[in-house]
Amino acid sequence: MKSKDTLKHAGKRKRLVDTLSSKGIKNQKILDAIAKIPRHLFMDSSFDDHAYQDKAFPIGADQTISQPYTVAFQSELLEVTIGDKVLEIGTGSGYQTAVLCELGCKVYSIERQQELFKKTKLFLPKLGYRPKLLSFGDGYKGLEEFAPYKAIIVTAGAPYVPKPLMAQLDIGGRLVIPVGEDPQVMTLFIRKSKNEFEKQELGEFRFVPLLENKN
Ligand code: SAH
């Protein structure tokens, strides 16, 4: 049985938000989302005391819930607004999914780990989060059926940029993806036209790997 959300948790979230602001996160809607979402409920209750530290934590199946700073940094780069269609690769705990839902996005998210997929699909609606679709499958392929997307976020380290993700991006859309072995370079692609992409590299991060051909 998961523990409840209390005033004490809310206080810890407020301090986490202050930390993220001091590290340079400016988007108020993202800070508000982090102040609101009970991150401790996305992890095992034995981590309750650590849930509001700015750190990644294990969520089972050898995976981690991303560090709050990383979630905020990637979310900021997406530059999404209410109603935008967003594709997330690597649902994991669903925490990043919840942030995107709080921002008012229509969220499509893919997870390749059966166990996590099932758990998160049951869990998010309990908190009132209703992504458009949680899909069990291989993120390297994207989700052609609902393309194009205003933004695509990859929450695992990709050895290379999967072509389908570039192809499924809307003109003017933004793809945020950590690329490389270890560490990864946070990379932003902005689609300027059918064949033109602007690329920006935005510093080093560490993610669990985006696994290929493991379905
Ligand atoms: N956004 C998640 C981060 C989880 S870690 C959160 O906030 O909790 C990255 C996730 O990517 C893991 O759950 C892992 O199983 C998943 N993943 C790895 N390779 C994948 C692939 N090819 N397709 C879809 N998901 C993948």
Strand and helix map with partners:
Elements: H1 7-22, H2 28-36, E1 57-60, E2 63-65, H3 68-78, E3 85-89, H4 95-102, E4 106-111, H5 114-126, E5 133-136, E6 149-154, H6 163-167, E7 169-179, E8 184-191, E9 197-205
Helix pairs in contact: 1-2
This protein binds S-adenosyl-L-homocysteine (SAH).
Structural overview:
With 215 residues, the chain is α/β, with parallel strands linked by helices. Helices cover 29% and strands 26% of the residues. The protein has a 7-stranded mixed beta sheet with strand order 5-4-3-6-7-8-9. The protein has a two-stranded antiparallel ribbon with strand order 1-2. The longest helix is centred in the first third of the chain and has 16 residues, at 7-22. 43% of the residues are buried. The model has no long low-confidence stretch (mean pLDDT 95). S-adenosyl-L-homocysteine is lined by residues 59, 63-66, 89-90, 92-93, 95-96, 110-113, 116, 138-140, 155-156, 208, 210-211.
Return Rg in Å.
Answer: 16 Å
Overall pLDDT confidence: 95
Hetero compounds: S-adenosyl-L-homocysteine
Number of strands: 9
Strand order of the largest sheet: 5-4-3-6-7-8-9
| Low-pLDDT segments, ≥5 res | none
Overall helicity: 25-40%
Structural class given helices, strands, pairing? alpha/beta
Describe the largest sheet.
7 strands, mixed
Helix-strand pattern: HHEEHEHEHEEHEEE
Strand content: 25-35%
Span between N and C termini? 30 Å
The number of distinct helices, counting runs of at least 4 residues, comes to 6
Shape: globular
